[in-house]
Amino acid sequence: MTDVFDLAVIGSGPGGYRAAVLGALRGLNVAIVERGEWGGCCLNRGCVPKKDWYHSARLIAAQRHFEGRGINGALSGDLDKAWAHQHDVVATVRDSYRSYLKHLKVRALDGEARFRGPEEIELTGAEGTHSLHARHSIIATGAVPIVPEPFELAEGRVLSTDMLFDRPPPDGQRVAVIGSGVVATEFAFILRMLGREITWLTRSRPLSRLGFSPQAVSTLEQQLAAADIQPQRVPGYESVHVSDSGVTITATDGNRFEVDWVLLGTGRKPQTDGLGLDAIGVKTDRHGYVQRNAALQTAVPNIYAIGDVAGHWMTANHALSDATIAVDNILGGNTRRQDGRFVPMVVYSAVEMARLGLDEDSAEDEELEPAVGFAAFETSPRALGQDEPEGFVRLIGDMDTGALLGGEIIGGDAGELIHLLSLAPDRDTALAWLARGTWNHPARAEEILNATETLASKWHLQTAIFGDSGRG
Fold this sequence. Notes:
Layout: E1 3-10, H1 14-25, E2 30-34, H2 40-45, H3 47-61, H4 66-69, H5 79-103, E3 107-110, E4 112-117, E5 120-125, E6 128-139, E7 143-145, E8 158-160, H6 161-166, E9 174-178, H7 182-193, E10 197-202, H8 214-226, E11 231-233, E12 237-243, E13 246-251, E14 256-259, E15 261-264, E16 268-270, H9 277-280, E17 303-305, H10 316-332, E18 345-348, E19 352-357, H11 360-365, E20 370-376, H12 381-385, E21 392-398, E22 404-410, H13 414-417, H14 430-435, H15 446-458, H16 462-466
Parallel strand pairs: 1-2, 1-6, 2-3, 6-17, 8-15, 9-10, 9-15, 10-11
Antiparallel strand pairs: 4-5, 5-6, 7-16, 12-13, 13-14, 18-19, 19-22, 20-21, 21-22
Helix pairs in contact: 1-10, 3-5, 3-7
């Protein structure tokens, strides 16, 4: 007997989970399949446990201001206890995931999924093999860590971030963090605050490929230095020697680094093995990403792909946004389009960094006229009261229309504040929406209003942003 569903979701990470929940809430009969741990990378080995540690890291970093605030005592990090704490948090969240799926009557299935046709999925699990019939499917199988040569994974010595959360951290204080992207930039700070000695090796300037402004990257570097964290540039890696006593990394320029263990923050690659995509005509590109159109449809129109398996952004934020659009398109005839540039990108390191949309270069590439509005936290009463005056709000508007083209927020709570730039009904009226809002005082969010007003005044966009009331 074949089970019949309106929607089958393969993968239970943030994108897959949201797609299943949203589909059920909107009346679809939904099945979700997971071959590993429920919740995917984000819940078990990514953003959820990492942000648990980040909160602890920020508390420890703040102690450099304690004496001036009249707070006595010192804090120190314990990575083993921190690991146990995140493990409990993850277990609690995972239980709530499963409970909510059950409440919504989503059929949660353990096993390996393989397409046998556009509407036929073979499921192999502990109870054997059976078939699902699904009118629509969403591929949300995520990604797996990249292990670049000459590194090879070795338990307790050379770890991917997946391995770091799979079991308690290795013994040894000296840790080499490898990579220049988001994951390495975050873990260099987190592990340093949790009591490890960090050797951070990069082949390029950290975060240099993410579209953050030079001011933003400089602010990050200053705050990392204040935490005694300095990335060391290497041209490449000649060899990695693992022994009972530790790991020796030799760079191609001859420099050697001896540590107790290594954490690879070197990116991830799409996970599509075993899905049988070729047999049904779903195509992947040369990097392994599932190919899709702006409506998130694959070459097989009733099959969609979301999150890390299909998008190079590799963030839970993009997976969640993709899930919303995919379900909307299944129900509404493929009318919505995804533009991943306008999904928030957030980095949690020695300073929080968040951005979305275009920067000046990409705006000019689209033949737009970018204008910048700026407001620094160094004069914010709220930021000064928190001893976190570093950072700023930087908005990019269109000089012709006053539309919001992009923005970045650097500093405390940036990951929360960035939502204010994404919630307006449309980008054409987003700045006007911000300008006419009401605001709490004192609050960091006020600097978004200040940046908007500065942009309007500096570039003579008062009428475009404030309407007729902007006429002088």
